[in-house]
Structure formats: C-alpha cells, structure tokens
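Worked example 2:
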Amino acid sequence: MNIFRLCGDLSHLVAIIILLLKIWKTRSCAGISGKSQALFALVFCTRYLDLFFSFISVYNTVMKIIYITCAIGTCYLIFMKFKPTYDSNHDTFRVEFLLGPCVILSLIFNHSFTATEILWTFSIYLEAGAILPQLFMMSKTGEAETITSHYLFMLGAYRGLYILNWVYRYHYEGFFDPIAILAGIVQTVLYIDFFYLYITKVLKGKSLVLPC
C-alpha cells in the first residue's frame, strides 16, 4: 500500500465520520440526500461480496466492514430514526437514470463475465455518480451547511487521492485498471465546481451558497 491509497482511505473514513456525527449531534439529517447514501450503501454491498470468500489483509477486511456498516447505519438514521427531518421534497434526483446505465455498462464492460465481477464493476460505475443526488439537492436548496461541505470535500479528496494512487501504481507496479480509473476521474470531475466554492467560500468562513 502506498501513501496516496492510505490517505485516500483515511479521507473517505473521515468523510463518513463527519456525516454520522453531523446527523447524530444535530439529531437531524436536513440537507443530506438519502438517495445518495442509499446508493453508497448499494455500492459497498455489491463491491465487497468477496468478504465471504476471499482474504487479502486485516486492514482490507476491517475497512470493508466499516464502510458497509457505516453506510447501512447512515441509511437507518436517515430513513428511520430521524426520518421526520429528512427533506424528501428536495431529494428528487431520478436515480433510475443512474442505475440503468450502470447496469448496462457493467454487463458490457467488465473484466470477466461472472456474477461477482459484474457486481464489482457495477459498484465502480455507480460510485462515480452516487454523489449526484446530493449535488442535485444542494442545487435545489441553493446552499449547504458548513459541516455538509466538509463531508463533501473529504469525499472528493478521497477520489482525488485515489487518482494519485493509480498514477503511483502504474509507474512503480505497472498496474492499470481502465474501468476503475475512468470511473474515478468522472467522479472527481463532478466535484470540481464544489471544490472551487469550498476553497473560496467555506475556508474563508463564509456560507456555501450556490450560484443561481
């Protein structure tokens, strides 16, 4: 494991912790897209099926369990425990327009036509766009809480660091996975506008208000 992969994993973990603490401390999931969180839960559940038949390392196993547990736990907080605070009126992104293409792409472009490989590929494609409901929700409300902005920044940083991880692995290990790399680049691009607003607004102590 290289430093970029480790920092990427830690950024992802910090993002999840920020989100869970935000919901738990405020006893509210206002401003959080339940659809995005449900998609992330689907991503982890379809990607980490190898937990049942493959062992890579203790670190790898622990991180996979953490991701799945936290994703499902977040959905529980949004759709059950704090459901009255969930803003479904603004969380209106049509996820079927995301799920359909991901299913089709995973059936056509994959490393091997097996159930586990297709599900893994599906999760890679789906993760690239899983944040879209959250960004769409923010565009409808016109703003985002500071803590939600921190969560999104760390999530974007995770993907950016993974791109550096792939560059490192290609240079030193000859590793190249076009599916994961292309999906990761697409996902990172989705955060570019948000990164700009985060740096120019949030880091200067201003509220993040999206332009009309």
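The first helix runs from residue 3 to 26. Residues 6 and 145 are 28 Å apart (CA to CA).
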